[in-house]
Amino acid sequence: MIFGFLNFLMLAGLAGVALPVVVHLISRRKYDVVNWGAMQFLELGRRTRRRIRLEELLLLLLRMAMIALLALALARPWTKGGWFSGLTRTTPRDVAVVIDGSYSMGWEGDDVTPHAAAIQLTHELLEELDGSDTVTLLDARDTIRSVIERPTSDFRIVREELDELPSPTGTSSAVAALTKAAQLLTTGEHLDRDIILLTDAQRLSWTPEDERAWKRFEESVNQSTIPPHVWAIDVAEKQSESVANFSVDRLALSRELTVPGFPMRIEARVRQWGGTSTQRDVHFAINGQRRSEKTVTVSLPPDGEANVVFEHRFDSVGSYVVSVSVDADELPGDDRSDAAIVVEESIPVLLVDGDLHRDRTQSETFFLHAALSPSTSDAPWVQSRVIDAKALTDASLDGQRVVFLGNVPRVTETQANALRSFVADGGGLVVAAGDRIDVESYHQWFDDHGGGLLPARLDSIKHEREYDLGDVNIDSDSLNVSWLSRFRRENGVDFTEARFAHWWRMAPIAELVAHEGADTNSSHSNDAEIVAQLDTRDPFMVTRSFGKGTIIQMAAPLDSDWSTLPAKNDFVPFLHEIVFHLASRKSGRNVDPGEPLMLDRSSGSSTAIAAEFTTPDGRTLPADEFGMGDELRLGLSDTSLSGVYRAQPTEEDAGRTDFFVVQSDRAESDLTRLSPPEQDRIAGEDRVRFVNSLDEIVAGMAEDEVPSELWRLLLLGVLLLLVGEVLLTRRLVRGGHEVIEERTVSDDLST
Fold first, then answer.
1. Residue 82 domain-assigned?
2. What's the pLDDT tens digit per position in 625-675?
3. Cβ-proximal residues to 541 (8 Å cutoff; 6+ apart), any chain
4. 692 with 557, same domain?
5. What are the b/e assignments for 57-88, b being 16+ CB within 10 Å?
6. What is the pTM of this model?
7. Which of 61, 283, 373, 659 has the fewest Cβ atoms within 10 angstroms?
8. Which domain CATH number covers 255?
9. pLDDT digits (tens, 9 = 90+) for 511-557
10. Which ranges in 672-710 belong to alpha helices (H)?
11. Alpha-carbon distance 456 to 512, whole Å?
């Protein structure tokens, strides 16, 4: 017990402890004794005299203790820590509990998972807290969920929320979770504040190399009026780094939206973390049903990987979930990867012709229309419609998924605004420039000064004869994106053999910004990507995202004026790949954590009228409303959990069920733990206290709490001693009289 005294002068009162001793000694002074014959009848027995002396000594000690406690109480001593502080603590505390909910916390190599151990430790912590303490609860995943955002002293609610926490999914960031917890504690009202992080000490979540982020966290904590103490418990101490772990990365789809009978590819990367050389079966499933005929076996070296590709054609319209998985291991959270796919009857496409002739063979979109809408098909994959450029309006864009501008000379301001809105809402736009283009018009309404729609600036028209290369073709090595890789020389038929006599020299916006003298204050996003090049190294296709949609800008028109591309066998598949790639962006079925899920009113799904969502942990949530009036759409904003979501109509036979997938990173599969030096670096100067048990936190809380003053207990002790002194004095007086009276009566009887 450590005492600190507020006023040392008050301790002089301890000298008063000697007063009862002095009084006692004075009362024992010797007097002259006069023998009197009758005194023999008043003498006490030896045992009685010993009892009285003991009681007198006890009375003396009580009086001394009473004076000592009174002097100590006036000095106002205080204490910190120890078991005694539990009786004296008057200052409640605010506690923020952060539970790591990433899928590495689902490791099953021990009796209980780290996630279950964290929940149990939190229950035990609640037993240690006082009734006046408050608790805030956070679930750290891809997005940090404030399970209990406002500090509460109702631990019953906390226990109920603990038992309802979803199974581990996704990834987590320790520094982000701790920062969020510190922000929530600023709403607390108590002088003692603590953050407790329950995690598996995985290196990935702690990001020890990101010293800047930790410095920012430290600064934000220190700027708080009452900086909290930060504790971290490793709840997975027995987790072994040497155990082999198998994982399946995110699926790469050739498209998210397709039509019945159209082939699509599902690519997956299977990894082994640690382990030894082995073989592993990889399974393919649709809506949870495995297709045994598609199971493949891959060979995996230690810390190695293998790629697998599945091809499938859907037979009917609907919403589907495709899954690629490996057999379960001790970390089940990464053994399967899912993706949602929408199968529609056909894709509506609008072809805007820049020179529409009565003789359609002379029109700019003739080859486009012939390729996308073959007359021999009763159920075409694409429903294309041709309009003149002057007829392009907001109304003509309604219900369309993709728009092609076929050598359109110029666009008006109204048309440019309509196209911007169309793409921002998830539509796809293809701009194929030819010899009719009014460059100034495009620069005015499509480049950065017109709202940043096009990814590249048109420079000048190039001619094949300007280069000593012979035929100018598409460079096969430049076709690296997944939806174009099928047209590489080794995979396609004749796409790279198409000859180009003319093309536009295009300068991507990012290239212009980097160029000396360019407008560096441009508001244009620099996300333009060159997805195909010519042999001359000039861009052939440049793409970029705009809002929820995508734009593809081409250096040549899609007719036979400048190239032989329309005559190639790969021309039709190439156009279909463009259409399905652009249309897939509007489906929005595979998103990152935190992005809302949106039901598309034009998809033919009646669930957009009234729907509810089932989350990966089995909860049912009503659909949220986005927008108003004609723009009203239903969706779900809470996508903090990764996994498969299902939207179903609230009325029977109201429509189909729609699937969504919230995807997460697979970096959590690396179970490498923090090294002692990394742990020391994160701890810094008492930035985070790493402990091994809850007892260490409880003891540390007692040491760190505001000092508790003892004067109330000391005054209570004085009162109790005073009562004891009165009772003992009364006993001595009454006891002495009883002995004397008893002795006198007995002597009278004997005489």
1. no
2. 887 666 678 899 999 899 999 998 887 656 678 999 999 888 888 888 888
3. 530, 531, 532, 552, 553, 554, 555
4. no
5. eebeebbbbbbbbbbbbbbebbbbbeeebeeb
6. 0.72
7. 61
8. 2.60.40.10
9. 554 444 444 444 444 578 999 999 999 999 999 988 888 999 999 99
10. 676-683, 694-704
11. 9
